[in-house]
Amino acid sequence: MIPAGLRVAIVPFPALGDLTIYLRLAQAFSAAGACVTYYSDHLSAAASRFDWLQVTALGQTGVRALLAEFDLVIWDAGAPLGRDRREDGFVLAEMVDAHAHLAVVTAKKLPQPLSDCRLPLTIGGREFGPKCATFCQDGKAGLTMVDWVDRYAAETFGLAVPSTPPGVTGEGSSRAVGRKAVIFPTTPNPRKNYWPQGFRRIANSLAAAGWDVSFVVMPAEHSRLEGEYPRFPVVTFPDLDQLIAYLQDTCIVISNDSGGGHLASMMGLHTVTITRKPPNFVWRPGFNGHNTVLSPLLTFKGWGGHVWRPFVPYWRAQTCAEEALRRLVGCRRA
After folding, report:
1. In the UniProt record, does the keyword Isomerase occur (predicted)?
2. Nearest CA-CA partner of 171 in 267, 244, 238
3. Rounded Cα distance, 64 and 74, in Å
4. Torsion over CA of 323, 27, 156 and 120, rounded to 10 degrees?
5. What's the rounded Cα separation, in Å, for the pair 41 and 170?
C-alpha cells in the first residue's frame, strides 16, 4: 500500500480517451488516501465537475517542477514536456535515471530510450513497481484499457480496484430518461472513421423511430460537417465542461474508436463503437458493461488499404439504442 497522504501528480496524454483512463488511475490513488493533482489543460475547464480531485492546467509546467513538489509523479511518455523539452528526445530517460519517484507510463508502447528501463520506483524509502511501464501488456487478452489501468495500479502500488467510474458532478448531473442519441462521427485519424453515409443511415433510422439525434464535432470541422448531415443539429463545444453538460441527458452515444465514447462510458452512458477492429479490442469503452462494438462482418485489403466500412452492421445501432432506453427506464422504475 502507498503511504498515507502521499502527494501524487498525474500528467496524462492530452487525448480525450487517455484523459479518462488517467482519471481512473487518479480515482484509485484518491480512494487510497493520496492527495492527487491532475495536470491537464483540457480537463481544467471542467475542474468543478470533479470535486473529489484537484485538477489544474499543465501549461508550461515541466517535469522538474513537479518532481520538486510531489512525492510521486506519474507522467505519460507522450505528454508535452513544457520547459523541460529538449530536441534530443531523451530528457525523460535522463530524469528517470536521476529521480527515484518519477514513473513514466503509456497506454501501449514506451519510446525506445525507456523501453528497457527496469528500475524500481522508490517512495519514502520503500520500493514499488517499475519506473517505466505500459498499461496494456497484451492487446489480445480481451481486457479493456480501464482493466489494464486497474491492473497497473494494483500490481505497482497495491491499490484497490474502484467499484464505480470516476465521479462527474456539477449542475445537470441528474439525468432524465429520454430518446436522445449523440453521434461523434470523426477522430483525428481518418483511417479509424466510419463513413458519413453510414452515420446518416443510423441517424435517419433513429430519427424515424422518434429519437432526438445530433452530431458532435470538433470546432475546426464544424462548417464542413454541417454539410454532411444537413437534417440534424451539428454542434461543437469550446471546452470539455460544455461537452459534459451536453451529454448529461443523453441515452446513448455512437462513435468511432474515439474519446467521445470513453467520456460517455465514464459518465455511465450506453455506447456503440464502430471500428474495423474485433469486438474485444483493448480501446473499447470500458467504464461500464453497456458498450456494443460494431465490427465489420467482412474485411479485405484493396485500393491501398483495408476495405471494411461497407460491411459494418450499422442497423444494429438502433436496436442498441432501444435496448439502452428500456434498461434506463427499467432502472428508474425499480
Report:
1. no
2. 244
3. 12
4. 140
5. 19
What's at 215, amino acid-wise?
Answer: F
Q: Name residue 113's amino acid.
A: P
Does the model's pTM come out above 0.90? yes
- CB atoms under 10 Å from CB of 190, counted, come to 7
Question: To 10 degrees, what angle do helices 259-266 and 16-31 make?
Answer: 30
In terms of C-beta density within 10 A (0-12 exposed, 13-18 middle, 19 or more buried), how is residue 172 classed?
middle
- Tally of domains in the chain: 2
Written as nine digits, the cell of 194 is: 466510419
Count CB neighbours of 68 within 10 A: 9
Q: 159 — alpha (psi -120 to 50), left (phi > 0) or beta?
A: beta
Beta-carbon contacts of residue 281 (< 8 Å; ≥ 6 apart)? 139, 257, 275, 293
Q: Which domain holds residue 266?
A: 180-333
Task: Give me the torsion for CA of 187, 188, 192, 198, rounded to 10°.
Answer: 40
DSSP secondary-structure letter at 157? H
What are the tens digits of pLDDT across the range 233-279? 999 999 999 999 999 999 999 999 999 999 999 999 999 999 999 99
Specify whether 138 is located in the same domain as 220.
no
On whether both 150 and 208 belong to a single domain, the answer is no
Residue in 305, 279, 282, 281 with CA at minimum distance from that of residue 294: 279
DSSP 259: H
Domain assignment of residue 36, yes or no? yes
Question: How many C-beta atoms surround the C-beta of residue 259 within 10 A?
Answer: 22
Residues 68 and 145 in one domain: yes
In tens, the pLDDT along 179-214 reads 999 999 999 999 999 999 999 999 999 999 999 999
Cβ distance 210 to 192 under 8 Å?
no
Does residue 316 lie within any of the structural domains?
A: yes
